[in-house]
UniProtKB/TrEMBL annotation:
SUPFAM superfamilies: HlyD-like secretion proteins. GO terms for cellular component: efflux pump complex. This is Uncharacterized protein. InterPro entries: RND_pump_MFP.
Length: 372
């Protein structure tokens, strides 16, 4: 029983001796020391400018209207223009198709003959009326009396009937000529053909669609803009620049402001800004249905600061030198142009931009500065 106790006692003595040796011969403990010098940062001046308020929005190039080309008279298609096909372009007044006009030409000829007959009947009645007046005068002379003439005796009703008959036939003739004219279908304005379904020999009924036309003179883009953003445009719009979304580096096309539709629906809480674009298909690569980016430049101005993009850290923050300290500052971007970001100028008069800083700098630390 004594041997185990002896072993334990020896082990404890050896451990105590080893610890004492380490404490006596070990290195001196490190003492906490704070750096005597403050961190050094490099600063630069803010570039401040005044720019116009801008609003960026997106929309789709749409025709100002869409025409379903139909016929007003039935019949067989006798001729179709080569331009009346999808992708074709037509000028105002161009003949697009013609319906067989023979039946309508016959109707016009018949109406013209009836009209000529009605005119002849009027001439006949005028002759009869003249004879009746002469007979009435001779009868009065024989009786030596001056009695008023009876309109019926002078054939006045018969002449009035002939004149009314000519008027009715004249209306029929006008209708027949108009119907004949409608066998030729013309373009109402310069247009591009989106869809065509007109074939020679095809028999059409009244109102049947033969093509779909979009106008070439101008198109519209409806931009959806939040009401809060629309307020930036209340002072007026200086210009509107539009670019295709797929090629934002192309030179902009200038649009014309048409109006703001401040009508909110259950589907959207956005206002609609309508922009007009003259001769949209005259711009290279443009087509109806394409998506556009619009930059609306307002007449109202605002102060902004230009910040290099590489100085912005996560959360739209930058480091500024303010009252002897390095502080992180919240940015509110306005526009990005290449490697420069325009932000709202919410900086103090004595603030400076920190362009170089040591790693590990904490917010609010006192720093020394070096001008750049």
């Amino acid at each position: 029983m004594e041997q185990p106790h002896l072993k334990i006692g020896l082990a404890c003595c050896v451990g105590i001796a080893a610890c004492s040796l380490i404490l006596l011969t070990g290195p001196e403990p490190l003492e906490e020391s704070l750096p005597e010098e403050k961190p050094r940062v490099s600063i630069g001046k803010f570039v401040r400018i005044v720019v116009a308020n801008t609003v960026t929005a997106f929309g789709v190039l749409s025709p100002r209207q869409s025409l379903q080309l139909t016929t007003q008279v039935p019949g067989e298609i006798a001729w179709v223009s080569d331009d009346l096909e999808a992708g074709g372009q037509v000028a105002e007044g161009d003949l697009l198709l013609r319906i067989d006009e023979r039946d309508y030409a016959i109707a016009v000829a018949g109406a013209e003959a009836r009209y000529a007959q009605a005119e002849a009947n009027i001439d006949i009645e005028e002759g009869r009326s003249e004879i009746a007046r002469l007979e009435w005068a001779a009868w009065q002379e024989n009786l030596d009396e001056d009695l008023p003439a009876n309109p019926l005796a002078l054939r006045a009703p018969q002449r009035a009937e002939a004149v009314a008959r000519r008027k009715a036939i004249g209306a029929e003739l006008d209708s027949a000529r108009l119907t004949l004219e409608r066998t030729a279908v013309h373009a109402p304005w310069p247009a591009t053909v989106v869809h065509a379904n007109a074939i020679v020999g095809q028999v059409l009924s009244v109102g049947e669609v033969t093509a779909t036309l979009f106008p070439l003179d101008y198109a519209v883009v409806e931009l959806q803009v939040p009401l809060k953003t629309v307020r930036l445009l209340d002072a007026g719009i200086d210009r509107i620049e539009l670019r295709p979304v797929h090629d934002l580096k192309t030179p902009p096309v200038v649009g014309t402001f048409e109006g703001i539709v401040r009508n909110l629906t259950d589907d959207t809480r956005l206002a609609t800004v309508r922009v007009r674009i003259d001769e949209p298909l005259g711009h290279e690569g443009w087509a109806y249905g394409m998506h556009l980016e619009a930059r609306l430049v307002a007449e109202q101005k605002r102060a902004v600061a230009l910040i290099p993009a590489d100085l912005i850290v996560s959360g739209n923050l930058i480091w500024v030198y303010r009252d002897g300290r390095a502080q992180r500052h919240q940015l509110y971007p306005v526009e990005i142009q290449g490697q420069t970001v325009s932000v709202e100028d919410n900086f103090g008069a004595g603030d400076a931009l920190i362009v170089e800083r040591p790693i590990g700098l904490f917010d609010g630390a006192r720093v020394d500065v070096a001008e750049m």
